[in-house]
Amino acid sequence: MMWELVATLVAGVGAAGIALMIRKLSRNKSPKWLIPVFAALGMLGFQVQAEYNWYSHQKGLLPDGVQVVRKVDEQAWYRPWSFIWPQTVRFMAVDTNNAAVNELDQTLFLVDLYLFERRMAAKRVSQVVSCERRAMASFTDTLPGDGESAEIEPNWIPLPTDDALLRILCTESL
User: Which pairs with CB-CB distance under 8 Å and at least 24 residues apart come from 32-41?
Assistant: First the structure.
């Protein structure tokens, strides 16, 4: 984040330098307020570019076997351009290389989900995904087994049938 602040300041100084050059080329006939306006536009432009390139940059850094399963696009009133081009502010990826299949029930997987959010450290969350139930639950010592019942217990979160996590784990493993 420190380097982003430095880069933002450099973009502002560079844009102000362009305005200063315009002023010198016009023999100081262009208005003085052009310099801070160019500086502000340069810093704002850099920040907008950094916000929109964050997702593709982070996705490109993911190792082989880690696939994006969900992304969250956001619109905000203080970013009016986001109503035209929504910005991806967070996403979730699954590590398929290290997914472990349950020895007793081949429809259960233990997977690591990685949660990424702009300007936050990535978080790793272990989850159990049931292909049969089309649900997932946090991996804990108290997680009940599959048992006889096909009912989804309270600690299982149902997933839509077209969920990317189910598609990646359940169809690729069968």
Answer: 39/12, 39/13, 39/15, 40/12, 41/15
Largest CA distance in the chain: 86
Rg (CA), the chain: 24
**Whole-angstrom distance, CA of residue 62 vs CA of residue 81:** 28
Would you call 146 exposed, middle or buried from its count of C-beta atoms within 10 A (0-12, 13-18, 19+)? middle
* Alpha-carbon span 17 to 63, nearest angstrom: 40
Per-residue tens of pLDDT for the chain, all 174 residues: 789 999 999 999 999 999 999 999 999 999 999 999 999 999 999 999 999 999 999 999 999 999 999 999 999 999 898 999 999 999 999 998 888 888 877 778 899 999 999 989 999 999 999 888 888 888 876 665 555 444 556 678 899 988 899 898 887 654
State both tokens at 51. 């916000």
- pTM given for the model: 0.78
Residue owning tokens 């502010």: 89
